[in-house]
Design brief:
Blueprint: E1 11-14, H1 18-29, E2 34-37, H2 45-49, E3 53-54, H3 58-64, E4 67-70, H4 75-82, E5 93-97, H5 102-114, E6 118-125, E7 137-142, H6 144-157, E8 159-164, H7 169-197, H8 202-218, H9 220-229, H10 239-252, H11 263-275
Parallel strand pairs: 1-2, 1-4, 2-3, 4-5, 5-6, 7-8
Antiparallel strand pairs: 6-7
Helix pairs in contact: 4-5, 7-8, 10-11
The structure holds NADP nicotinamide-adenine-dinucleotide phosphate.
Protein name: 3-hydroxyisobutyrate dehydrogenase
InterPro entries: 6PGD_dom2, 6PGDH_NADP-bd, HIBADH-related_NP60_sf, NAD(P)-bd_dom_sf, RedAm-like_C
Pfam families: NAD_binding_2, RedAm-like_C
Length: 288
């Protein structure tokens, strides 16, 4: 049995895929004793060579230390790993580090609470290379006590932020943030595809397109303030003018292989606001 260091809790990592392996390396580098378990046991060999201690079962890994990371593929894998457990884990804080829905976070929290453990759900806005490189943003929600007890260890992985004490808060932040990225990235791809199909040089087009993305970032503070104050000034265009352009876009995107980006729903929302006499307001009124 390895010696327990007094200042660094023993940690277990269940699931040693890309994210789990990066977590293990960083924890070892931070001076922790780290136990590992992986469904495919052969995938822990390199980690054992680096100093991690492979465990025979999920149960052994869960009991190894006071902090346990579930760095698994998804909720189904997490549910599968926790299915057989009946131990008292009241000394443990369990962190679910996987991308999932709010409902899945609530169900995992319920299961973990059944063992008496504290639960933190986590959203990883980072790639494996960013873990421990000072650039990873990791959002946590759930047990404040568990977060505060283990904050120094969580800091090894990336900037930790507790976004709420409800277990599903981090999943909602995480998915909403992925949504920002997908909407922007797919908006750019749809535009490049349309330009290319029209025989436009995409490199030339992209220069102006990226400036458009920059305008969204520049105007973000103003949009946030309008949403918070429930005040929707028209800015450069009001809803009636936006509707005209959006209808042109819907027509242009008909049959496009990436679809229309949900613009018909947006147009319907604007039409209903105009019918309510709000055509002179700005685009932020669509969420008001
Ligand atoms: N990679 C990224 O850049 C990134 C970024 C942000 C968020 N995430 C999220 O982080 C989580 C982990 O991602 P990853 O990249 O580390 O995935 P990964 O490399 O595919 O690793 C998945 C892990 O889950 C295990 N697993 C899958 N199904 C299982 C089951 N039914 N029972 C037990 N273990 C099971 C795998 O074990 P085996 O080795 O036996 O298959 C492996 O250890 C995912 O939710 C992902 O969406 C990843």
């Amino acid at each position: 049995m390895r010696t327990v260091k007094s200042s660094t809790p023993r940690v277990a990592v269940i699931g040693t895929g890309a994210i789990g392996s990066a977590v293990v390396h960083r924890l070892l580098g931070g001076g922790h004793d780290v136990a590992v378990w992986n469904r495919t046991a052969g995938r822990t060999t390199d980690l054992a060579a680096a100093g991690a201690v492979p465990q025979e079962s999920v149960r052994d890994a869960l009991s190894y230390g006071t902090l346990v990371f579930l760095t698994l593929k998804d909720y189904a894998a997490t549910r599968h790993c926790l299915a057989e457990i009946d131990a008292d884990l009241s000394a443990q804080t369990i962190v679910g580090l996987y991308t999932g829905t709010a409902e899945e976070a609530r169900l995992t929290a319920q299961r973990v609470h059944d063992f008496g453990a504290r639960y933190l759900d986590a959203g990883i806005q980072a790639s494996p290379e960013m873990i421990g490189a000072g650039t990873a943003a990791i959002l946590y929600s759930g047990s404040r006590d568990g977060f505060e007890r283990h904050e120094p260890t969580l800091e090894l992985l990336g900037r930790p932020r507790l976004v709420g004490e409800a277990p599903d808060a981090a999943a909602m932040w995480d998915l909403a943030l992925f949504g920002v990225w997908y909407d922007a990235q797919l908006g750019l791809l749809r535009a490049l595809d349309t330009a290319r199909a029209a025989g436009i040089d995409v490199a030339d087009f992209a220069q102006t397109a990226t400036a458009q993305l920059g305008h969204v970032v520049t105007a973000a503070d103003a949009a946030v303030s309008e949403v918070r104050q429930a005040s929707y000034p028209p800015g450069p265009a009001d809803l009636t003018e936006h509707l005209t352009v959006i209808r042109h876009l819907i027509e242009m995107r008909t049959g496009h292989r990436l679809g229309d980006g949900g613009l018909p729903e947006v147009a319907a929302r604007i039409e209903s606001l105009i019918a309510d006499g709000r055509g002179g307001e700005g685009l932020t009124a669509t969420v008001g």
